[in-house]
Amino acid sequence: METITTYKGLDFKPVYECPYASAYYNAALRMMLCVAKEEYIPIEEFKTIFLKMSDMLDEFPAKHLVFDKRKLGTFHQPSMEWYFSVWKPQVKLKGLDSHYKLLPDADWFAKAVAAGKNDIYERYGTAFLDGISINYMDTLEEVIEELLSSVE
Question: Quick one: which H or E segment has residue 134?
Answer without folding.
Answer: strand 133-137
